Structure formats: C-alpha cells, structure tokens
Amino acid sequence: MPLPAPNLDDRKFQDIVDEAKRLIPRYCPEWTNHNVSDPGVALIELFAWMSEMVLFRVNQVPERLYVHFLNLVGIEPFPPSVARTDLTFWLSAVLEQPVVVPLGTEVMTAAGASSGAAEAVVFSTVEELVIEPPDLKTARTVTADGERVVDVWDDLRFSVEGVPCFASSELTPGDTFCLGFAKSLAGVVLRLTITAQAEGIGVDPKNPPLVWEVWSGEAWIAVPVHDDSTGGLNREGEVVLLVPRAHELLSIGNTPAYWLRARLLAPHPGQPTYQAPPRLRSVQAEALGGTISAEHAEIVPGETIGRSDGVPGQAFSATRAPVLPRREGETVRVVDNDGTAEWIEVDDFTTSGPNDPHYVWESGTGTVRFGPRVRYRNGSVRQHGQIPRDGAQIVVSGYRHGGGGRGNVGARTLTVMRSTVPYVRGVANLRPAVGGVDAETVAEAMTRGPLTLRTGQRAVTAGDYERLALESSNEVARTRCLPAPRGNGAVRLLVVPHVRGVPVDHTLDDFAIGNELMAVIRDHMDAHRLVGTTMEVTTPYYQGVSVVALVHAGPGRPADLVRQRAVEAITRFVNPLTGGSEGTGWPFDADLNAAVITQLLESVDGLERVEEALLFQFDLRTGRRISGARDVIRLDAHSLFLAAAPQVIVR
User: Fold this and answer.
1) What is the enclosing helix (H) or strand (E) of 49?
2) Are 401 and 320 spatial neighbours (Cβ–Cβ below 8 Å)?
3) What is the pLDDT of residue 406?
4) How far, in Å, are 34, 195, 489 from residue 530 at the CA level?
5) What tens digit of pLDDT does each residue of 193-247 get?
6) Three-state DSSP class for 401?
7) DSSP reduced 3-state for 569
C-alpha cells in the first residue's frame, strides 16, 4: 500500500456549503431565504466549488516533500546497484616473468571511444591481476572408481611411445587424465600444446565426449574451452582453456598439487565415443592471459567539493553521481589552518556528539552532509556531529561513479583499454555484464516506506520476509515466502532476480542467483529474522512451457512479421518478470490453460484467428518436451512458468 499523504483540509463541497449557511444567522440575520434558487445561495455554492478545488491542490504533497517525510523516518531510496562481469586480458606474447594488471584498470565499450568517455560504458577491475607462467610438475591417470592411480609424468616427458590418456583400457566414463601444477591457475588463460597420435579414433573431433575440470576447493568445476585444435586429444595441436577464478590445492595419489584434469564422459545418444584411449607424447603449458572481476565504475580523482561556512547541516555535492559504496581510502577530508583531517563516514547522526568528526555520504545523489543542530521537545538544543570550521575546504580523496541498468552490456563489448598495460595486447568480456539496476524511484520508495514502518524491520510474517528480501538488494525483483518442505517451523524464501533484455532472450541460467547476491540476501535476512527461525533462500522451480499454435494471418499481413509478434507475445506473457495479465510477472499458484493463450494471440496485431493452441511441458535443461499436448498445465506453490521454444505456424 502507498504511504497515506496527510490531508491538510478534508472538507468537501457540501461541507463548505453547510458551514457557510450556518454562519448566515450570525453575520447576516436579515437573510432568511436559504433555498437553492436564492442568488446568495448560488454564490455560496460557486465559492464552495472553487474552495474545494483549492483544498484539493493544498492536499497534494509534492514528491520532494514526500522524500523528506521518508527521510525523517529513516527511509531513503536505494542507490543503483552495479553491473559486474569478468574481463579477460590477453598477453602480446608468452612470457617467462609475471605480468601485472593493476587494480582499477579501466576498460570501456567501443561506443564513444573515439569521442570521449561520455557515451561509453566504463568498467574497472576490482582486484590486481597477476598473470604468472604455469609450472607443470606432474601427471596422473585415474580410473573412474579412483582405485587405480598411475604416475605417467616420466613417460610423458621421456617415453617415445607416450602414455595412454586414460588408465583403463575399457574406457569407462569417469576415467581422468590429470595434470598437476605447482601454483594455482585461477583466472589464467592456459594454452596446452599437445603432441599426440591418432589412436583415440571414433570420436567427432568437434564434439568429443570430454570435459576439462579443476578443483575449486569443494568440487570439480568445468573449465570452458576457448579453442581446441587437437580433435579430442587425437593429434598435435593446442587446447586453450579459460580457467575459473577458483583453483585450490588437492592431493591425488599422495601428491599435493593444483590439478587440471580431462574427464571422459558418457556419450549422448548418437554421439560417437573413443574406441581406444588417445596417446599423448608431450604436454607443454603456457599462459596467454588472465581473467579478473570488474564492475561498472569510473574512478574519479580527488576533488574539492566546497568550503564550509561554519553553520550546522551543511551539504556539498560531488561532481559525479551516483557514487558507489566507498572502499578503503575513499573518504572526505577537511582542510583548515590546522592541517588536513580525515573524517569518518556514518550511516546517520543519531549517536554523533558535537565533537565527533562524522559525515553522511548519500550514494544516490553524491551529497556529503555534515551534522545538524536539533531542538528537542524539552527546549534543549544539541549538535549532532562536528561542524567544519568556517572557511575550511571540503575535499573528497576520490570515489567511484557508476551503477544502474546501463552497465548491463553484452558479451565482447568491453574491448577498449583507457590506458596501456605493458605486455597486454587486448581485453574482452567473454560473458555479458549482469546485476546493474537503476536507483529506486520515489514511487517505489513510497510503496516500500509504510511496509517498513509497519513491522519495524523484523521478519515475523511471510509478508515481512518477502519485503525484507526485496529491500536487501535492487537486484531482487520478486520474492515469495512459504513453509519449507521439511517443516519444523522452517521457511523457504523464493527469490526471482532482475533479468535485463527482452523476454524472448531469457533463458533458465539468466534466473540463477549469483553467489554475491545470495550472500547479500542471506546476511540481510539473518540480521532481521527471529532467533531460532530456520530459513532457506533459493529460487523457484522454473517450469518450462512450450506453446504450439496454428494461426491465420490477416489479408496482406506478412507471415514472418505475424509469427514474430506472436512469439514475442507468448514469451512476454509466460514469464516470471513480465508475465501475467498485469505484466508484473506470472503469479504464483496460477495455472496456465490454452484458452488464455488463444485470447492472447487473438490480440496480436495482424493475426486474424487462432485455429489451435496446445501446451507442452518443457525441460529447460535438456531442451526437450516432457509431456504430450495439454489444455492445462498445473503449477505448484514453489514454481513459476517460463516460456521456451514456442512454435507458431502462420497460414
């Protein structure tokens, strides 16, 4: 519900007329005819109508004042959240010494690169990247059951015949060939130069039943293959791997090392597999680059934002807004005749005394505020926070500017480096940037405000859990709280993250919750839930739905255009974020039937009539239908629909 605005005057037209008539005997006793036909009464009604219009205007509280009301109760609009992605830096040559990409290295999109950064989207690295040459020190083959471990390091280096890639001649799925390194390969772009002979015949060189993996500390995780010219380890060539930024120590065969392994997979139906193990004669490892995390942020150097006049409640604005959450070293300094003093940022001035060098830095607007002087009900006056001396300069040491949906750029768009790095020839983001959400609007804050005030920041009811989860991050789009399946008073919190782009491009992986967002939600909920309450944060089960429709286009309407509009309408309607009749996301517990799809398609421009519409359950992982045609698909309490592979036949 919205925050109820205070009515400064709640009188209506009839109230004003009645009040004026009651005053007639006092001020004009000779006026005795109070009928509607009397000219005086007509004037009263005219002025009553005009007064009601004035009162209506008086009662409209401007948004600016509404924001001040929210601030008075400690509710401020959320600042924008930052889009993040991984940047891969490519070396100009294979080197024997480490290459360092400094913290804060800025990379931007090609758009606007020639005309300046005003139109470009700028990302900066959040850590220092050190690209070190890999040190390959051992090799093992391990059977699928783990009982047989063979040291093949010497044979790999010195044997003319080489070594079989897998330990068991039966080629059991799960057999592995392991390479051990002295140092972690986390984030390294690794090139394996392989010499092999074509004994692993029978496979499709472009689709071998093979996966590369590294140990993350908890599990073996897949390593993306950037390029493979070996045909599945069957010939001389190179394998370029993008090692994830998690690679930990593990012991295999009593040998601790940082392991990289090639694991044999069970072939898919119709996929050819090996008839004999590939035989390797040599393996050489080199670093071609490295990957590091980056965020949508432009580093702004230190600047003077104003000069103090010695009065309470001063406010100064940074040049660029919004301002991202401050890191170490990003602060406000006050420069006066006594020198430079570094002040302390606080969330508010509630506990600040008159001598505490505190300030508040609003991320959304970039405004730096100093403590106010407050008069209390008993007449006493207290200064909350120290006041900078008259004439003192207010200086920010530097900050980061960015955030918002603008940072959700596509893959391979961050390709321009703002400054050169020695031995680095280029950079790219191999995956899209995600997580950028615009700042909360006043309307959204007005909706959230009363919900926050009602419960006092404590999770008691299901609605409290849902509201607090929405407050935890701008990246949270929808929530639902249900009893956990195991019972015992536990609750399950279902979270749907924001997904950018058009619904027709949405996939199941887009609705996954990243580790950073999951940690933010859990930490926020742990701080507000009741002691003893067990909580599980997860995503809904996304039930894939494939719609097959036979429709007829209107005369003169292009079939391709009608088909495109119909597919877009289906994917938008059957979607966790844009679906449903209100366009705010498919409702929980709402089933889907073919009649609703028929009505939806009949509203598509250029479509004359719908001959037939069928629904199929769809496995979003395998990309296959898992049921026959149905008129209705049921949805349980823990699930949401997601359209997949719609087929529209236009006649």
Assistant:
1) helix 39-58
2) yes
3) 86
4) 64, 61, 11
5) 988 776 656 677 788 888 999 998 888 999 999 998 888 888 889 999 999 988 9
6) strand
7) helix
- Per-residue pLDDT at 86: 92
Residues in the chain: 651
Check if the beta carbon of residue 238 is closer than 8 Å to that of residue 265.
no
Q: Which residue has the tokens 């930052």?
A: 82
- pLDDT value at residue 451: 66
**Helix spans in 414-479 (H):** 442-455, 462-472
**Would you report the helix, strand and coil content of the chain in percent, each value rounded to 5?**
20, 35, 45
Work out the average pLDDT over 438-443.
76
Strand, helix or coil for residue 19:
helix
Q: How far apart are CA 461 and CA 482, in angstroms?
A: 10
What gap in Å lies between CA 650 and CA 557, rounded to an integer?
10
pLDDT band at 489 (very low <50, low <70, confident <90, very high): low
What are the distances in angstroms from CA 593 to CA 124, 360, 420, 551?
48, 53, 58, 17
Q: Which residues pair with 265 in a beta bridge?
A: none
Please provide residue 19's backbone torsions phi and psi, each rounded to the nearest 5 degrees: -65, -40
3-class DSSP assignment, residue 196: strand
Contact between 260 and 221 under an 8 Å Cβ cutoff? The reply is: no
- Are 384 and 295 spatial neighbours (Cβ–Cβ below 8 Å)? no
How many whole angstroms separate alpha carbon 218 and alpha carbon 553? Answer: 55
The closest of 230, 248, 210 to 284, measured between CA atoms, is 230
Cα–Cα distance for residue pair 311/315, rounded to 1 Å? 10
> Which uninterrupted H or E stretch holds 369?
strand 367-370
Q: Which two tokens stand for residue 590?
A: 């709402």
Give the Å distances, CA to CA, from 423 to 226, 419, 537: 21, 12, 44
d(CA 3, CA 546): 41
The answer to whether 223 and 212 are in contact (CB under 8 A) is yes
Q: Could you tell me which of 597, 545, 590 has the C-alpha nearest to residue 566?
A: 597
> Which amino acid appears at position 232 of this protein?
G
Number of neighbours of residue 54 by Cβ within 10 angstroms: 10
pTM: 0.67
Rg (C-alpha) for the chain, rounded Å, is 33
The residues, any chain, with a CB within 8 Å of residue 55's CB and separated by 6 or more, are 8, 9, 11
pLDDT of residue 91: 94
How far is the C-alpha of 374 from the C-alpha of 226, rounded, in Å? Answer: 62
In the three-class reduction of DSSP (H, G, I as helix; E, B as strand; rest coil), residue 545 is classed as: strand
Asked if omega into 322 is within 30° of 0 (cis), the reply is: yes
- Cα 465 to Cα 77, 270, 518, 531, 577: the distances in Å are 19, 48, 15, 14, 19
Closest listed residue to residue 363, CA positions, set 123, 67, 81, 73: 81
Judge contact between 548 and 616, C-beta under 8 A: yes
pLDDT, tens only, 170-189: 788 888 999 999 999 999 99
